[in-house]
Amino acid sequence: MLFFNKKSSIILSLLLSLGLLVIEKAEASNFRVSPIKVSFSSKVSSQVLTVRNDSNETLRFQLHTYIWKQNTKGEMQLDATEDIVAFPGLFTLKPGQQRIVRVGTLTPVSSIEKTYRIFIEELPPEKKANQQQNGISILTKVGIPIFIQPSKQVVEGVLENIGVSKNQINFQVKNTGNVHFITQKIRVKGVGEGDKSVFDRQRNGWYVLAGTSQNYDLKMSQQECSKTRTLVIEVKTDNKVFTEKREMPKGACSASN
Questions:
Q1: Do the beta carbons of residue 140 and residue 25 sit within 8 Å?
Q2: Tens digit of pLDDT for each residue in 69-92?
Q3: Where does a domain end: 148, 175, 193?
Q4: Where is average pLDDT lowest: 80-84, 99-103, 128-132, 152-156?
Q5: What's the pLDDT at 195?
Q6: Domain of 53, in residue numbers
Q7: 59 and 173 inside one domain
Q8: What is the pLDDT averaged over residues 217-242?
Q9: SS (H, E, C) the chain
């Protein structure tokens, strides 16, 4: 996972505007979904979602449920599942109308949190007889995380595989607990002689599921690298902070950059 630069931020905004990315927020331009997260436990096996049509048009929806995993870049890996049941799977909402969706599971609780996603996907409007399609319709789908939580929850994490080579810092955020956490802020600081700050960069993170690791890297300038004596990496989650310090290794700065 990279620290975004200006170019990648522009590309991300463009993809969102074209409707080519899944909207992580539970509020889209045409409809809203609440709550934005579903949690099951040994005592709770069903909940409801409310979908509201905020547009001036009649909207059609369909639902899909998936097992949710992550790769080392934090990207979603989804596989269709019947562990989670949602009803109704297809429905239509008139302008201003809302509908309750019932979500449930019979999957037993285990010692490690199980993670899923339910997607509420906007469908193309029904085409009436002799009706011509004008313009381009941008359809949105909203992904809601679902967690089947263990009876005893342990939130733990470590920073590992920290390395510096050719002016680049690499490290991993590993979830060593049995439930997910959210990296609210990732901060990397370079400290020079006399504890003088050389650089201080921050970015927001995302979910880190139980038992998974996510890779991060940060490119330094030649000047920043050569002036840095100590690296401080800090990851703030929703309820804990993980911090590691490393002395800058010899030969880590590349004079050719």
A1: no
A2: 999 999 999 999 999 999 999 999
A3: 148
A4: 128-132
A5: 92
A6: 24-148
A7: no
A8: 93
A9: CECCCHHHHHHHHHHHHCCCCCECCCECCCEEEECCCEEECCCCCEEEEEEEECCCCCEEEEEEEEEEEECCCCCEEEEECCCEEEECCEEEECCCCEEEEEEEECCCCCCCCEEEEEEEEEECCCCCCCCCCCCCCCCCEEEEEEEECCCCCCCCEEEEEEEEECCEEEEEEEECCCCCEEEEEEEEEEECHHHCEEEEEEECCCEECCCCEEEEEEECCHHHHHHCCEEEEEEEECCCEEEEEEECCCCCCCCCC
Q: Into how many domains does the chain fold?
A: 2
Distance CA 27, CA 19 (A): 14
Asked if the structure places residue 93 within a domain, the reply is yes
CA distance 61 to 124: 9
Q: How far is CA 80 from CA 16, 37, 85, 219, in A?
A: 24, 19, 11, 37
Report the amino acid identity of residue 245.
K
We report the CATH number of the domain holding residue 177 as 2.60.40.730
Q: Which of 242, 240, 198 is nearest to 221 (CA)?
A: 198
Q: What number is the average pLDDT over the span 201-206?
A: 91
Q: How many beta carbons lie within 10 A of that of residue 29, not counting itself?
A: 11
Contact indicator for 82, 145 with CB cutoff of 8 Å: no
Buried residues in 62-97 as b, exposed as e (16+ CB within 10 A): ebbbbbbebeeebeeebeebeebbbeeeebebeeee
Q: Is the pLDDT confidence value at 2 over 50?
A: no
Count how many Cα atoms sit within 13 Å of the Cα of residue 75 in the half-sphere of its side chain. Answer: 7
At position 217, the amino acid (one-letter code) is D
Same domain, 105 and 218: no
